[in-house]
Each structure stands twice: as C-alpha cells, then as structure tokens.
Specification:
By secondary structure, the chain is mainly alpha-helical. It is built from 4 helices and no strands. Helix 1 runs antiparallel to helix 2. The longest helix is centred in the N-terminal third of the chain and has 44 residues. The radius of gyration is 18 Å and the shape is elongated.
Length: 137
C-alpha cells in the first residue's frame, strides 16, 4: 500500500517536470518568435531598429531559438504520446501573428505579441489537459 502512494507521487512529480519544461520552452519560443515577427515588419517597411546587419543577426538568433524550442516541444509531445493538437495550435498562432504583422504594417499598434501570448496560453492549457489525461507506467 505504501509503495502505491509513492508511485503516485513520482508520477505527479514527473508530470510537473514535463509541464515545466514545456512551459519554459513555450515562453522562450513566444519571446523569440515575437522578435522574428518584429524583424519581418522592419524588413517589409524598410525601417530598422539599429541597422539591417545588426537586426538580421538578432533575428537569426531568435529564429534559431524559436525553432529549437519548437523541436523541444514536439519531442515532449511525441515522447509521451500526447496528441499534436497543442503543437499545431502554436504553429497556427505564428501564422496568424505573421498575417497580422503584414496587414498592420502602417499601423503604430502591434497586436502580434498578444496573439502569440494567447496562442501560448491556450497551447499550454491544451498540453496540460492532455498530459493529465494520459496514464504513465
């Protein structure tokens, strides 16, 4: 009887660690993805923050970090047999963010970050729900 309770605690701890990894990866991905979207906006308007060379280097690093964290999230989803729905939703958030950036080029307001944050929060909730529904051995 005592061993069963210990196992439940271990499973809860493992699930918490998985969720923390997924959350940290998602936060990095959201912030760096926004930097990439800002660079796309700068590129399309030909109005750079510092100059093209510096901005493109920052965007390349941010793009690499974003892709790296997307891959990490995909691995976490695949390793634990969770549906790909949270991952697809995150990608959809980036597509919508890019679409918003292109549409609002001349506007001083930029809601693409809000779109990415909403996509991240929804993505995290979907992942958490899927993670809690699986049974670990």
């Amino acid at each position: 009887m005592k061993k069963e309770k210990l196992t439940k605690k271990q499973v809860a701890k493992i699930k918490t660690e998985i969720l923390e990894k997924y959350t940290i990866s998602g936060l990095w991905q959201t912030m760096c993805g926004y930097i990439v979207l800002l660079f796309v906006k700068e590129l399309l308007t030909d109005n750079y923050l510092i100059n093209f060379s510096v901005d493109v280097l920052v965007a390349i690093v941010a793009f690499y970090i974003t892709l790296h964290n997307l891959i990490n999230q995909y691995k976490l989803i695949s390793e634990h047999g969770i549906s790909k729905k949270p991952f697809v939703f995150q990608i959809f958030g980036y597509v919508i963010g890019l679409f918003i950036v292109i549409i609002t080029l001349k506007s001083p307001f930029d809601i693409s970050f809000a779109i990415l944050v909403i996509a991240f929060l929804t993505n995290k909730k979907l992942f958490e729900k899927e993670l809690n529904s699986i049974k670990m051995k």
